[in-house]
UniProtKB/TrEMBL annotation:
Principal cellular location given in the protein's record: endoplasmic reticulum
Signal peptide: none
Name of the protein in its database record: Protein ARV
Pfam families: Arv1
Length: 282
């Protein structure tokens, strides 16, 4: 499947580092290769999840040809020709092909920054809820609840709850590991996938800014969307069935709920999702 020029391929979408000269029928053939990458950084077919050595071949004179997977006989990664907006829409729709493209065939190193930003959004929501639940005529109370310490405390609690959620997922997968075939779990890649798939938390800020009567419903839908994205990320990263991925999510929620219960017993105003839903009426 050739293209008329290089405009059909977005820079950076095919990991073009490590281009080597080919030795086919002509000396003008070049192709992408991962010879300088480790075995864990190999490309993956977005359709069948099989490893691939290259995503496309770059022929001189502006001719590109997408590599065909030897297993499923389909293009290894059709998204290398897609616009980033289309890729984002497919990721929002939780398509496994889009997740494989993002996790395996691109080099995205923004998961750390995205995690911090999502935690800031969640901390702001809890901080806002803390002020809203303590209505008082005395303006000094507003100043007291607007202190930076309260926001930092909400950020720390949100971080601990998310850590507990991830620990629950990792613990279940580690215990379940001997039951499966002898496969090495890449927990670093799984953590990256979970952080990237939690981007739905960014919607918490608009839900607070445009506040109206159905804000609690929006928060529930955002929570469901984040869990669905995490579920798909686990399936794609570890190539496991839906049942195991669903049980992993449940394990994470169980540990997270235990952490929330502990904070409530300590009489900390955690502003968690459960507390928010109970304190507001639909």
């Amino acid at each position: 499947m050739g293209t008329g020029g290089q405009n059909g391929l977005r820079p950076g979408k095919g990991n073009t580092e490590g281009v080597t000269e080919g030795k086919g029928k002509t000396d003008e053939v070049t192709m992408t290769s991962n010879t300088d990458a480790s075995a864990s950084c190999q490309y993956r077919c977005i359709e069948c999840n099989q490893e691939a050595k290259e995503l496309y071949r770059d022929y001189n004179h502006g001719v590109l040809k997408i590599t065909i997977c030897k297993s499923c006989q389909k293009p290894v990664d059709k998204y290398i020709e897609y616009d980033p907006v289309i890729i984002l829409i497919n990721a929002i729709l939780c398509k496994a092909q889009a997740y494989r493209h993002i996790l395996f065939n691109t080099k995205i190193n923004m998961h750390g920054k995205l995690c911090v930003f999502c935690l800031l959004c969640e901390a702001y929501l809890r901080w806002w809820q803390l002020q809203d639940s303590s209505q008082s005529i005395d303006p000094d109370d507003f100043i007291r609840y607007a202190k930076e310490w309260d926001f930092y405390r909400m950020f720390a609690i949100a971080s601990l709850e998310q850590t507990a959620y991830f620990i629950g997922i990792f613990a279940f997968l580690w215990v379940e590991r001997p039951i499966r075939a002898k496969e090495k779990l890449n927990f670093t890649l799984l953590l990256k996938a979970l952080l990237l798939s939690s981007y739905g938390k960014l919607l918490l800020i608009p839900a607070v800014i445009w506040e109206h009567d159905y804000t609690p419903l929006c928060l529930r839908l955002i929570k469901v969307f984040v869990l669905t994205s995490n579920f798909q990320a686990i399936r794609v990263t570890l190539n496991i069935n839906r049942k195991l991925a669903f049980l992993a999510i449940l394990s994470g929620l169980l540990v997270e709920s235990t952490m929330v219960y502990f904070f409530q017993r300590m009489e900390w105003a955690v502003g968690s999702d459960c507390a928010i839903y109970k304190s507001q009426d639909f």
